[in-house]
């Protein structure tokens, strides 16, 4: 436990001493604030247009949950931003250790691979939370000020989905970072993997065969959609937790392979 905490503390120190973490957080806050505002404005405009047309033609306004539409749009933006920013978060976590030669010291120390991987992964998760939690301020404002307000459970489930998606992407990025000692290569490869996982369901088309269903199941964003609606489904939880486990397991295999080659 002490070794795990030492690695996590060291990694957090490395993350927040360098300007990369602050640039990431600043860019993330700026983009989430901008897109939340734009989505809110667009939804308000759409609602007003509906009301004006209904008044003009003497018809009733069709039911439309504006606050839910805002939150769904915002959670969709969160997922897209994570796809772009996580490669930058993970690119140097293990690649830089390899480049500097410190990975050999870590692998030959009394520190276990599990402690090393979990310590570094936990630090990344902390950074993810630092990015996600402040964005809840906008959502809570919408919850308290809009009428009708979106159910609080919907907001919490949406953020749980964003957190699990981010955790799965971080585990994947950590694995890719363990494959190379070049940060840029790690970032590009990670982004490429994310794009494949994002659009893989397009390869399945609209088929209903077992292969098509399996391919659609592997799409990392398909499982995120229900979270944005406030639907908590155990199969999606299982998928993301399994994805995280797989990413960390593959990282351990990669480190074992590196140790064997030495």
Largest sheet descriptor? none
Structural class: mainly alpha
Whole-Å distance between the termini? 27 Å
Fraction of helical residues: over 70%
Describe the structure.
There is one protein chain. With 262 residues, the protein is mainly α. The protein contains twelve helices and no strands. The chain has one domain (2-261). Helix 2 (19-57) runs antiparallel to helix 3, helix 8 (152-177) packs across helix 9 (183-204) and helix 9 (183-204) runs antiparallel to helix 10. The protein has helices at residues 2-17, 19-57, 66-90, 95-100, 102-107, 113-132, 136-145, 152-177, 183-204, 210-217, 225-228, 234-261.
Notable features of this structure?
single chain; mainly alpha; 12 helices; 0% strand; 262 residues
Topology:
Blueprint: H1 2-17, H2 19-57, H3 66-90, H4 95-100, H5 102-107, H6 113-132, H7 136-145, H8 152-177, H9 183-204, H10 210-217, H11 225-228, H12 234-261
Give the structure's gist in a few sentences.
The protein contains 12 helices and no strands.
């Amino acid at each position: 436990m002490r070794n795990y905490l030492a690695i996590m503390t060291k990694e957090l120190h490395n993350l927040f001493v360098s300007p990369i973490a602050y640039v990431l957080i600043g860019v993330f806050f700026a983009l989430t604030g901008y897109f939340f505002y734009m989505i809110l404005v667009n939804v308000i405009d759409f609602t007003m247009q509906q009301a004006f047309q209904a008044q003009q033609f003497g018809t009733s306004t069709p039911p439309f949950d504006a606050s839910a539409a805002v939150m769904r749009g915002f959670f969709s933006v969160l997922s897209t931003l994570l796809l772009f920013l996580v490669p930058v978060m993970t690119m140097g976590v293990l690649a830089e250790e390899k480049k500097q030669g410190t990975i050999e010291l870590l692998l030959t120390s009394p520190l276990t691979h599990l402690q090393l991987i979990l310590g570094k992964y936990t630090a990344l998760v902390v950074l993810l939370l630092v990015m996600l939690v402040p964005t809840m301020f906008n959502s809570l404002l919408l919850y308290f000020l809009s009428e009708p307000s979106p159910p609080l459970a919907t907001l919490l489930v949406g953020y749980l989905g964003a957190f699990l998606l981010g955790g799965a992407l971080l585990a994947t990025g950590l694995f890719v970072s363990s494959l190379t000692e070049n940060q840029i290569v790690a970032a590009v490869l990670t982004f490429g993997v994310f794009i494949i996982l994002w659009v893989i369901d397009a390869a399945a088309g609209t088929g209903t065969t077992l292969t098509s269903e399996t391919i659609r199941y592997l799409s990392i964003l398909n499982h995120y959609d229900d979270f944005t609606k406030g639907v908590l489904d155990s199969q999606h939880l299982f998928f993301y937790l399994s994805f995280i486990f797989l990413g960390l397991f593959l990282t351990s295999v990669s480190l074992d392979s590196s140790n064997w080659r030495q």
